[in-house]
Each structure stands twice: as C-alpha cells, then as structure tokens.
Amino acid sequence: MPLTRDQISEINACVAASIKEFFQNDTFIDMIVTRVVDKINVSINDQINAAVDSVKRENVFLREKVDALEQYSRRNNIRLFGIPEEKNENIQEVVIDAFNNVGIPVTSDSIDRLHRVGKSLDSSKTRPIIIKFISYKSKHMVVTSKRKFKGTKCSIQEDLTVPRLQLLKEVQEIVGRKQTWTMDGVIFAKHKDKKFIIKST
C-alpha cells in the first residue's frame, strides 16, 4: 500500500531530526574531523616524501656530475709510488730518472708540475708523488707503459677522485689488484675472463 503524504512527511522529519542529531553529536563530529585530518596528513606526507625523494635523486645526480668534472680536471695527472724520499731532494730529477731507467721517455718539458702528497709524518713511509703532465698525450703514454715498472719497487696509478679511489679499493678487495685497472678515470675489472666497467666517466 503506498505511503500517504502525511507518512512521507513524518519519515522526512524523522530523517532530518536524525541527521541533525548526528551533527550535534560531539563524538560524530570528532570522528569526521579525525578522518579529514588523517586524509590531509596522508596527502601532505605523500607530497613531502615525493619532494624528499626528488631532492635525493637530484643530489646524487649533482654529486656524480661534480665527480665527473673533477676527474676530468685530473686527466693529465698520475701518481707515482715507491720513490724513496730524501731530504732536500730534486724531485723532478728523481722522477725523470725513475721513468727513463725503465725505458719510459719522460723529460722536464713534458711535466707541468709535481709534488709529494701529504705531510711527512712518518719517515718509514714513502709518500707518493703526483705528477701533472703538460699534455694528455704524455700522460697516456706513461700510463700505457706502466708495466715497465714490473719487478721494481715503483708503480703508477691514475689520479682518481676520492669516491673513485674508494670504489677501486673495494673492487680490488673482491677480485684482486691484478684484476682491476683504470683508464681515463674509468674503472675496469676482470672476472672469469670477462671484463666489466665498474665506473664510467
């Protein structure tokens, strides 16, 4: 049987009264407010996390960029290890003799500047020598001839940035020193007759 107009009016009045009662109920209002605040907090947290992730990615990118630029600035440099250190030494003459004695043709004209690295705190340790060549060609010739130092106390290594040097040491601990090398700042490793690029430019 269909509802009469009075019954419909009565039902509407009851619904309206119930809704009004709900909105006048502190517990109900607190629940609504809590849910709204939770939604807002979730949204804000998501935005903050997204912003933090973006900054982290940009920071990694910038650090990689700075490292690449710094490594490029060292492209004409090498480090020479194992040269005995003497008081009042003529370091350029000592270095040139060390190269020429193993058949690597280096002259004073090919060297821009050179110096020992670090402070002489322990006389029992020989400080390495950093050498900057006038041209990349001269530096490349020396690096590709480094095997000529085999059997001597001397060795040479490219002048790597701190992050690359640390990475090189970590790789050497895994596969061994003889299985790792660098060229123009790029770190290579060999494992089971396969060559891997560990760090590119």
TrEMBL record:
Superkingdom of source: Eukaryota
Official protein name in the record: Uncharacterized protein
Coiled-coil residue windows: 45-72
InterPro entries, A to Z: Transposase_22
Organism phylogeny: Eukaryota, Metazoa, Ecdysozoa, Arthropoda, Hexapoda
Alphabetical keyword list: Coiled coil
UniProt source species: Photinus pyralis
